[in-house]
Write a structure and sequence with these properties.
There is one protein chain. The chain has 151 residues and is an alpha+beta fold. It contains three helices and seven strands. A hairpin with a 7-residue loop joins strand 3 (54-59) and strand 4. It is globular, with a radius of gyration of 15 Å. The N and C termini lie far apart (41 Å).
């Protein structure tokens, strides 16, 4: 059984544009806060999406808590893959893969993250389904908004 402090996620989403356009949108990190209301104090250190760059920010899901995190890019292959390590109030790893399709691009994402904040860990012991619900709402909002940006 997985720890109640850990969220494992994987999903694949289709977008009606080629991988190069999806990647170009991902590179617009300075616009992420405008796209996603749950993201704050967001910045990219390192001047672009490449190995060693670090994304820092605060995540505020539709639940009463905030998480500070940093995402270090370990491997970036334009326009098809990003592997990263997550640290801060969440710790783990994350992966993104872009695959061309006849209709555009399939984007596969996966991560395993552990909640490190003491209040979140306490909440996870008694309300893991609620925390998972908050996580999944953030993912849904992110995908819907990203689709709008690509139109």
């Amino acid at each position: 059984m997985t720890s109640p402090y850990v969220i494992e996620y994987s999903g694949t989403y289709s977008f009606a544009v080629p991988p190069e356009e999806v990647w170009a949108a991902i590179e617009q990190v300075d616009r992420f806060e405008a796209w996603w209301s749950w993201l704050g104090d967001f910045r990219l250190e390192g001047g672009g999406l490449h190995e060693g760059a670090v994304l820092r920010g605060t995540v505020a899901p539709p639940l009463p808590y905030r998480m500070r995190l940093q995402v270090e890019l370990c491997d970036c292959v334009r326009p098809c893959a990003i592997d990263a390590v997550v640290a801060g109030d969440l710790e783990g790893d994350a992966h993104l893969r872009l695959s061309p399709t006849p209709a555009g691009t399939d984007v596969a994402v996966a991560w395993t993250i552990e909640m490190m904040q003491r209040p979140m860990r306490v909440a996870a012991r008694i309300g893991h389904p609620l925390l998972r619900w908050g996580h999944d709402r953030v993912v849904d909002m992110t995908v819907r908004s990203f689709r709008r940006q690509l139109r």
